[in-house]
Design goal:
Blueprint (H helix, E strand, L loop, with lengths): L8 H23 L2 H5 L2 E9 L2 E4 H10 L2 E17 L2 E14 L2 E16 L2 E11 L7
Parallel strand pairs: 1-6
Antiparallel strand pairs: 1-2, 3-4, 4-5, 5-6
Length: 138
C-alpha cells in the first residue's frame, strides 16, 4: 500500500491510515451527503480534472443541489502513499459512476490527493484526476 521506499515502519502505519481515510472518503462521496464529503476536505481544497479547476464550495454545491451524484466508487488495486512529515501524497486508480445533471458517466481514473495533517486529522487540500488509459496499469 505504501511506497516501497518508505524508510520507517511509522510511515507504513501512516500510509495505512491514509488509505483508510481515502476509502472512507470514497464511501462519503457515494453517500451523496455534502456535509459528510466536506469532512474530508480542507477549506482550501481544489480538484483539477480535464474540465479545469473546481473549488470545494463549487463541488459541494453541485452535490448538495443533486446536480452531481455518485452511485459507485472503488479503488482498483493497491494505493501508493508517500509521507513527508505532516503532508502525504496518495495515488490510486479508481473506478466510479457519476451522474451529472441527469447524465451518467462511468470513469476509470488515476487520482492523486495531497493530504495535510491539521488538528490531528488528515484533510485533503488538493485532488487531481486523470483518465486511465484502457488496458493501462500501474
Amino acid at each position: 500500500m505504501t511506497s516501497p521506499s518508505s524508510p520507517h515502519a511509522s510511515d507504513d502505519a501512516v500510509g495505512d491510515e491514509l488509505v483508510a481515510v481515502a476509502d472512507d472518503w470514497a464511501a462519503a462521496i457515494v453517500s451523496n451527503d455534502a456535509a459528510r464529503i466536506a469532512a474530508f476536505m480542507a477549506e482550501d481544497w481544489v480538484i483539477v480534472s480535464e474540465s479545469g479547476i473546481s473549488s470545494r464550495a463549487d463541488f459541494l454545491a453541485l452535490v448538495d443541489s443533486g446536480d452531481l451524484s455518485h452511485s459507485a466508487m472503488s479503488r482498483v488495486g493497491a494505493a501508493s502513499v508517500r509521507v513527508h512529515e505532516a503532508t502525504a501524497v496518495y495515488t490510486a486508480r479508481v473506478t466510479n459512476t457519476a451522474h451529472y445533471r441527469g447524465r451518467r458517466f462511468d470513469a476509470d481514473e488515476w487520482t492523486t490527493d495531497v493530504f495535510v495533517r491539521r488538528d490531528g486529522r488528515w484533510l485533503c487540500v488538493h485532488s487531481h484526476i486523470t483518465p486511465a488509459a484502457q488496458g493501462g496499469s500501474r
